[in-house]
Every structure is written in C-alpha cells, then in structure tokens.
Write a structure and sequence with these properties.
Among the domains are: 42-222 and 256-281, no CATH class; 282-390, Leucine-rich Repeat Variant; 412-565, no CATH class. 63% of the residues lie in helices and 4% in strands. It is built from 47 helices and six strands. Belongs to the SCC3 family.
C-alpha cells in the first residue's frame, strides 16, 4: 500500500512537469552546485523531472538516489521503475507485490497485457524480480505520441538526455551498488520485460535503455580491464625488486586488487542484456529499434573488441545490411567504418569481409543516396587498409561511379580513383637525379594525366569529361589546377608529342572543364547533391583560382588557339572539298555529317560564315533542281527510267539504269538531313514532296523507305515554318496558307498511320504529334495584335486514330506485336524498340499536356501505369503531374474515368464468359492501380476538392439509374466501392463525414441487409470512411474481433472503442460494422473468389 501511495504522489507530481520544466531548466545546474538548502530542493524533484536539468544536476540527483538506495533499496528501486514507465509516455499508476520465486508457474501465468473496455483502462502485469509490477493507465490518453518519437527539437533533446541518464546512473554506481546482485538484476529484468511488450512505447523506450545500459557496462568493463592491467604492471615491478627493496604489504595489497570476479560479473550482465534484449529486438518490426540495435552493436565491437568482435556478433551486422529500411543499413555501414578504420581490428574482419564483400559492393547502388555514399567510403577505407580484398573487376565496377548523377557518391568514387590509379610515383630513372624540381614535378603530373586519360578512354559507356573532373575536384584539385603543366603538354612540339590525337582531344576537354570548375564552382547540370551556398573560405578559393588561371591563360591561350583551331582563311579551302565529297558520296552518315558541318560554319559568330552560307545555298539549290526534274520524269515513267548515273556502293558511276524510287530516296534523304539543321523554307520543299504521300506503293507510289524520309522532311519543314512565323506571316493570306499546309500534313499523316510498314507508321505518328505540339506552343506565345498561326483542331477521326495507335503499338509485350516479332530479336534490339516506344508515348502525352487533345483521352494511357511501370512509369507519372498543374479537378476526373473503364471492361468480360482479353485487367490489378493513383495525392489539404470529387463521382457511378428489384438486389457495379476505398485514406476527417452522408443519401432508398454477402463491398467502403485511427485500414476495421493484443497499435491512441459509451450512436455503429471474424472471412472470400483472375 505504501508503494501504491508513493506512485500516486509521483503521478501527481508528473502532471506538473510542464510547469516545473522551465523553472528547472533555468536553475537546475545552479542548484546542483549551490548551498545545501538548494541541494535539498533538487532532492525534492522526481527522477523523471531531473532530465530537464542538465548533466551536472543529473549527477547530483543520482548520487542522492544512490544514498537513498543504500538506506531503503525497495522504495528507491520503485522510484527508478516509475522513471522508466514515465519516460515511455505512460502517466498511469504502478503497484507492486512481492514474488518468492521466478519458477512459480502460477506467477508466470499472471504475466498479461489486457484491456478493460468497460472501465476504459489498460493493464500490464510483468515480473521484475523480486516484484510483480502492475501498470495501469487510461485508454483515452491525452497524447498519441510518447517522448522518444515526438517531432521537433524536444524529441531529439529527450533522446539525448534519456541516454545520458542511463550512462550517468551506471557511471555513478560502478564503484558501489552495481555489484550488490540486486540493483542490476531488477533493472535488467525490468527492461527485458518491457522491451518484449507489444506496446510500442514500452518496447521502444526500454529497448533504447537496455542497449545504452549495455554500452555503459562496456565502459565499466574497460575501466576494470585497465585497472587490472595497471595492477599487474605494478605487481611485476614489485616482484622485480630485490628482497630489501620489496614491500610485502604493498605487494599483497596489489595482488588483492587483481581479481577477475568483478569483470566476469559485468560481462555476465552484458551477456544477459544481449540475449534478453538485443537478440529479440534487432529484428523488431519497428525500424527505429533495429537502428538502435545496429548502432550500439558497432560501438560494442569497436570499444570492447575482446568480447564482441568475433564472427558470432559480426553476422548480425552482415544480415542487417539487407534490411529494407535505409536507416538500418546506414547504421550497419557506419559501424563497419569504425571497425575497418582501426588497423588493430583488421585481422578479426577477414571472414566477415570474404562473406559480405559482394553485399557491400552492391550497396553502392542503394536507392538511398546516403547509404550509397557511406558504403563507398567504407570501400575506400577497405582499399587503403587491405590491397588484396578488392579484385580488378571490383575496382572496375566501383570506379564507374565517378559518372554518377549524385555528387557526394561521385566525389567519393573520385577519391577511390585518385588513390588507386592517379596517386602513383614515377619509377626512378638514371636521369632523374639530374632533373631540377620543376621538371620532376612536370614528369609526375604527366604520368598522372596519362593514367587519367587512359581511364577515361577505357570507360566506353561514359563520355562526360565534365563529370569526371567534378568527381576528382575535391581530392585531385592540385592535379586539375596545374594549368601550366596541362597547357605545356598541349603545346609540345608534334615531333616530341607523347600523346595521341584522341588523348590530346580529351586533355583539351579536361582543361576546359577544370577552368569552368575553378571559375564557376561545382554546380553541374544533371548532378545533384552539391552545396548550394558556398562558405566564405570556398568563395576566397574560387576568387584566387580565377585570378591564377586568368593570369596564366592570358599568355598561353593565343598559342593554344593558333595550334588547335582552324583560322577563318582555311574555310575557303575546306568548302570546295566538302562539295566534292558530296558529289562522290551519298552515304547517310556522310550527308548528316555534312549538314552538321555546314551548321557550324554558317553560324553568326563563325569567321567566313557568308562564304559557307553561299556554298550551302548553292548545294541545296542544285539538289532541289535534280529532285524537281526527277519527280517530273517519274510522272511519265513508273518503274524504271534511264539515268545518266548509277550508284555502286558509295560511288556514283555513269551509263546505267536504276529504279527511280532509289534516286528519290537519295535526294529526299539529303533534303531530310539538311532541313533538320537548316531552314530551307525558301525552296518550298513542302509543296515539292507532299504529292509523294498521296499514292500507295502498291499503286506505283513511293517505297516505304522514301515515305519515311518524306514524312520526316515535311515534319521538319512544318516545324521551321511555325518557328519562323514571326518573320514569314506578314498577312492573313500567308497564315491561311500555313494552316492549309498543316491540315494537309495531318491528313496525309493520318492515312500513313494505317500503312503496312512499321517505320512509316511510327514516323507518321511522331510527325503529327510534333507538329501539333509546336502549333499549340506558337498559339500560346503569339502576340494577338499581329498576324500569327491560325487555330487548327485535329479532327475526331484523327484523335481516335492517334489513341488507337498508342494502345496497339506502344503498350505491347515483347511478343505481342506481330509486326515486330521478327525484328525484335536480341537484347540490344529490344532496348532499341523500347526506346522508340518511349519516344512515341512521350510525343502523345505532350499533346495532352499542351491541351491539343482533351484530358479525358489520357485515361487510356493512365490505365497502363501499373502494368508497364518499369517501361513507361516515369512518363505517365510526369503526365499526371503536368495535367494536375493545368486543371487538378479535370485530372482527377480522368483518373476516375480510367478506373471506371477498366472495371466496366472486367464486368463485361465476366458476364460474357469468353476468353480473357489481353486488354482487360484483373480486379486485384485495378485495385492496386487505384492505390498507386491515391499515392500521387500527397498533401491532403492541397488536393482536398479532388479527392472529394473522386468519391462523389464514383458513388454516382455505382448507384446511378439503379432500381432495386428481387432479381437485382444490389447495383451491378457495387464491387467498385472496394476499389474506391483506396482513396479513403486521402480524405480529411470533415470530408469523410460529408462523403458518408452523400453515400447514405444514395443508399437510403434501398433495402440493405448488411449480413448478406452481396453487400460486403458497401460495408468495406463504409468501414474505410470510419477507420480514422492511426495505422488502421479498412480491412483491420472490418475484420477486427476487438482483441486487445494488437502489436501494431499504440496503446496511447486517442481513439475510443465502441462500447465505452453505450449510447444510441455507438449501438448503431456496432450493429452496422462490428462484424464477427466469420463475416470478415466472407469479405475475403468475396474478393478473392469472384475476382480471382
């Protein structure tokens, strides 16, 4: 009874913690070192309140507690027990009764956790020998969170102070009561029992306390080991003395201090905590507990390696590197860094390294960036301490991370590259002694540059010098900032040049990248993770480097330009050579290279651009004249025609006969190559080439190869026309003419969508999408006060054809497209085909995003989001995001339309009983698609209207035009409510009530028997609207049998269970929704029986 009253008083005191906390925080430390009167004031506070006072006050109060424990250990231990209960967030009452034996079966049968729903109380009874403790607290508690998981600074502060309390408690007791076989036994028993509780607050708090207790015991064991070692040294010193100098009393006193009993007792305590807490909690369902266990395990192995650093403990670290939570994996990697960083511990890590090396290497690809970075740092540490652990294949894989898009990971990989390949010393030579210091430095730098260039050239998959330089900037800045050596290598005499042409080109890129990095900083496009704000020191380094490189390049840059770049005088010599090459060669690669070359030479900033433009215009005019004449002749002669040239390989020879369509292809390909880079509107290629699209090849029209190039050429021509509208559209007649060309291109392209050739269909689809997107963009940016493009809307027939093309030719499996089944052989061809299909889908999605097509037409695309997530998930998700920015309500309505169309197709197939159609998805797939759609609504306040609209629209879809009859007691689409329930978690509480009222409005007219199986979807959906408790979904709400043992549920929840207040509303809820376990099985059978497909 005395203990019970003490706990009640402690409970009353804990209710005023908030008022005392501020006062204690201001004056706690001052009290600890003040007068006896103030010390007495500190003694008056509870152990829970002392956490607010700082470490010095904590030591004073714990010393006072130890004195009280010596006088009355039972009462003081109950104070300590109450402390851990309060730290778990429980403001209940603790009662105790004595226990005579741990082995009493009747006693062990009383260890329960249960709820009293009538009284509104929860009980936990457990054994903390020699007591049986009972904790009682109200179910309707004021706070959902316990101190350790509270957000903000308070939660972090409490975590730190709580850990300090445990360490200070052990440190202050280590020379006295810790070895009395009573305090630690009771404390370990308490923490072990509470850490095994299903209640999250008890389990989390006491697991943290237990592992911190073990860490503190490790410190005690270390101090005992040091004391024993020092005593042994003193004993040896005494024994080494002569008989006259030796003190027998002092030797006996020293020998008495050399005892292993205390250290063995401490190690026994550590073993009990490890087996009772760690082995059960390192796989806990709560990731925070797993992280705590792994973090402390690494600390134990590093600090007390003689006991913990062996394969029996290291295996847990290796296993948990496979944990699904990034923070747990991170704690494992950080713990291993501490172990591999100590050379004395490396011999004990050999077996672990050989067993888990592959896992560590694979973790560099971790989806969490911090885990990947720390793993790379761990491997860098391993490579420095052990040369033979990582194989050349391992290094080849790891060094490729210098091209990573994450700068921290790339910089760490750069450190590995620099230490492995670049930080080498040149071999000694006979002439090295004769070199001065500057020449020796240049030779060292040249060797490093040679190794760097060789590494870059061997990296066949990556051609990003800028990324490579950025990765090496932090560790190899001295090499990359050695601009005098870099430029001197480039300015070497060709006769003495030791670098190849390819290496010189790469070295120029390295020089340019290093200059940019030194002058602008590490911010690179496409690489994230860099510091956005530079410190004052970094800014000073940037200014100094800019000054140095400017001073050097002012004198060297003219020499580099003279050697490397071509002067404008040579342009006049190069152009005739280009023209002669084009007259002799017609290979596509040559034509594309020529188009790009003329594009570079015709730039405004290029010297001799006027000469290059004149030569280009002359060349284009000559080719257009030949093509015009050829098209005129082809109207008279179909099939073959006498020509003055023929093509053999790449050479043009005279006096032969060739098919006219091959000549078409040559000239059209030339036009397509040049019009992609140059504006050829002056030659009116659209009018010249568009007639080729009007006749099928079977009727004497163009071949598929020609049609594909014609479509591409006309597409580029239309894009140039739209892009230069501000200069060319000077009257309404020209604007009307442009719209007629646009309509003609879309009509001809529409006819090509049904062409027999796959490439022609794809090119027609891409051309139509690109032109319509460019036209829409010009309409948005055009000044309405001047002449501009006129509005053109694609016909409904064309819109349906585009949508049908997407469904038939894009969303297909590897063997679904009969047209491509013979072509897609091999992995490389499959990847190329996937890349083409991604481009096609992106082109179609642009039409929806830019408003060319109605947003509802995206429903057919969205329905493949889950099925083709790996191939097209990023494109579809970005389309959702863009359409939501345009009109979030209409975008949400499109998602609803998508789900409804899928559901209707499924119902029709089930009713028809025919063979499964590949375009029909199963009920489970539709439900999973709805779940993924719901996840895209992040902020419930931002998308509040959207989610409510989804529920209202879906309820109307289920109950629209439904008339209840004996033959049709339920709506035909009632099971759609199960899919709709996936969006219930995104509703705010007021909106849940609104939607529930709207649902009751539609169901009020019908007779509903909730015990019948056919109404189970309605029960499921209503339960999802009523399931407002944290972490409780609709399934758990429907199938719950209201047992108190629910490990995934917090005991300090704010929820009130039905039955606490027996009013009419609660009775109604219980009647409607408190289903038995058998009824919940009916729900599961309903889902999986009727929709097993």
């Amino acid at each position: 009874q005395l203990f019970h009253l003490r706990r009640k008083r402690a409970h009353k005191g804990s209710e005023n913690v908030k008022q005392k906390r501020a006062k204690a925080g201001r004056s706690g430390v001052r009290r600890a070192g003040g007068s006896p009167r103030k010390k007495r004031h500190v003694e008056a506070v509870t152990l829970f309140e002392v956490i607010t006072m700082g470490r010095s006050a904590m030591q004073v109060v714990i010393d006072d507690w130890i004195e009280a424990y010596v006088r009355d250990r039972d009462s003081s231990l109950l104070d300590l027990i109450s402390f851990f209960i309060q730290c778990s967030g429980c403001k209940g009452v603790v009662t105790a009764e004595m226990c005579q034996s741990k082995e009493d079966r009747d006693v062990m049968s009383k260890m329960v956790e249960e709820m009293d729903e009538v009284a509104g109380l929860q009980y936990k009874k457990f054994l903390a020998f020699p007591w049986i403790l009972t904790v009682t607290w109200p179910m309707d508690t004021d706070s959902v969170e316990y101190p350790l998981i509270q957000s903000g600074p308070y939660g972090r502060w409490f975590h730190s102070e709580f850990c300090d309390f445990v360490s200070v408690l052990v440190a202050q007791c280590q020379h006295s009561v810790i070895f009395d076989s009573y305090l630690m036994n009771t404390l370990i028993s308490l923490l072990t029992e509470l850490s095994n509780s299903y209640i999250r607050a008890f389990r989390h708090t006491c697991s943290l306390a237990a592992v911190k207790l073990l860490s503190s015991l490790v410190g005690v064991a270390l101090s005992l080991s040091v004391s024993i070692e020092n005593s042994q040294k003193l004993c040896e010193v005494q024994k080494s003395k002569t008989m006259r100098q030796r003190s027998t009393l002092q030797l006996e006193r020293i020998q008495k201090t050399i005892t292993e009993e205390k250290r063995a007792e401490i190690e026994s305590m550590m073993d009990i905590v490890f087996k009772g807490v760690f082995l059960k909690r390192y796989r806990d369902v709560l990731p925070e507990i797993r992280s705590i266990c792994m973090e402390e395990l690494g600390l134990w192995m590093k600090r007390y390696s003689s006991a913990f650093l062996n394969d029996s403990y290291l295996k847990y670290m290796g296993w948990m590197m496979h944990d699904k939570i990034p923070d747990v994996r991170l704690k494992c990697v950080l713990g291993l860094q501490g172990l591999y960083g100590d050379p004395l511990l490396l011999p004990k890590m050999d077996l672990f390294t050989s067993r888990f090396k592959d896992r560590m290497i694979s973790m560099t690809l971790d989806k969490d960036n911090e885990v990947a970075v720390q793993t790379m740092k761990l491997l860098v540490l391993i490579s420095r301490t052990s040369d033979d652990v990582l194989s050349p294949e391992d290094y080849k894989q790891l060094l490729q991370f210098v091209y990573s898009s994450q700068r921290p990971l790339a910089a760490t990989a750069g450190e590995l590259l620099y230490s492995r390949l670049l930080n080498t010393v040149a071999p000694a030579s006979d002439t090295q002694d004769e070199m001065n210091e500057e020449e020796a430095h240049k030779q060292q730098t040249f060797i490093k540059l040679k190794a760097l260039l060789q590494f870059y050239q061997e990296s066949e998959l990556h051609k990003h010098v800028v990324y490579l330089v950025d990765s090496l900037w932090d560790c190899g800045g001295a090499l990359l900032k050695d601009w005098p050596t870099l430029t001197s290598v480039l300015l070497q005499d060709p006769s003495s040049q030791s670098l190849t042409q390819a290496e010189q080109a790469v070295l120029v890129e390295v020089l340019v990248a290093s200059v940019r990095q030194a002058s602008e900083g590490p911010a690179l496009a496409g690489r994230s993770g860099a510091k956005k704000v530079m410190s004052a020191r970094e800014k000073k380094i940037l200014v100094d480097d800019s000054a140095k490189l400017t001073e050097h390049l002012l004198t060297v840059l003219p020499k580099l330009l003279t050697k490397v770049f071509i002067s404008h005088i040579r342009v006049h010599v190069c152009i005739p050579a280009f023209q002669s090459v084009l007259e002799l060669h017609s290979d596509p690669a040559v034509l594309e290279a020529a188009a790009r070359t003329y594009l570079s030479l015709c730039g405004e900033e290029t010297a001799g651009c006027s000469t290059a433009r004149a030569a280009r215009d002359s060349l284009v005019q000559r080719w257009v004249d030949h093509l015009t004449a050829l098209l005129g002749d082809s109207l008279k002669v179909r099939g073959t025609v006498s020509m003055s040239v023929y093509i053999s390989g790449n050479e043009v020879c005279a006096h032969s006969i060739l098919p006219v369509m091959y000549i078409y292809w040559l000239y059209v390909y030339f036009s397509s190559s040049f019009v992609s880079c140059h504006d050829l509107s002056g030659w009116n290629l659209f009018t010249l080439l568009s007639p080729l699209l009007s006749v099928e090849s079977s009727k004497g029209g163009a071949l598929p190869e020609v049609l594909s190039e014609v479509l591409q050429c006309l597409c580029y021509s239309m894009l140039w026309s739209l892009n230069t509208s501000s200069e060319t559209l000077t009257s309404r007649e020209k604007a009307v003419s442009q719209r007629l060309q646009l309509r003609l291109f879309c009509e001809r392209g529409h006819s090509c969508l049904s062409h027999s050739d796959h490439d022609v269909r794809q090119q027609a689809f891409l051309g139509i999408c690109d032109v319509l997107t460019a036209h829409s963009y010009q309409l948005h940016v055009w000044d309405p006060t001047s002449f501009g493009p006129l509005l053109y809307t694609p016909s409904p027939k064309l819109q349906r054809a585009l949508l049908n093309f997407v469904c038939v030719h894009i969303f297909v499996g590897p063997d679904c497209d009969s047209q491509c089944s013979g072509e897609t052989s091999g992995k490389g061809t499959e990847l190329e085909d996937l890349h083409k299909r991604r481009n096609l889908l992106a082109a179609y999605c642009k039409l929806i995003v830019h408003g060319v097509l109605e947003m509802s037409m995206a429903a057919e695309v969205f329905m493949y989001y889950r099925k083709y997530y790996n191939d097209f998930g990023d494109i579809i998700k970005e389309t959702m995001y863009r359409t939501r920015q345009t009109d979030k309500i209409e975008s949400a309505r499109t998602l609803v339309l998508c789900l409804q169309q899928l559901f209707v197709r499924l119902k029709r197939e089930q009713e028809s009983g025919g063979r499964a159609h590949p375009g029909v998805q199963t009920f489970t797939s539709i439900k999973e698609l709805a779940r993924r759609f719901a996840l895209t609504f992040g902020d419930p306040f931002k998308f509040r209207e959207c989610v409510v609209m989804i529920h209202r629209n879906s309820i109307e879809f289920v109950f629209q035009e439904f008339s209840q009859t004996p033959d049709t007691p339920t709506p035909p689409y009632l099971s759609y409510l199960t899919i709709l329930s996936e969006f219930s978690s995104k509703l705010l509480k007021p909106d849940k009530k609104t939607v529930l009222s709207y649902l009751q409005k539609h169901t009020a007219e019908h007779i509903i028997n909730l015990r019948e199986e056919c109404w189970q979807p309605l029960i499921y959906y209503r339960a999802s609207l009523l399931a407002v408790a944290e972490g409780e979904d609709a399934v758990s709400y429907v199938s719950s049998d209201r047992k108190p043992h629910m490990p995934n549920r917090s005991p300090f929840s704010k929820q009130k269970l039905e039955g606490t207040k027996p009013n009419k509303k609660v009775k109604h809820k219980m009647c409607m929704f408190s289903l038995s376990q058998s009824t919940s099985c009916i729900v599961c059978n309903f889902f999986w029986g009727h929709f097993r497909k």
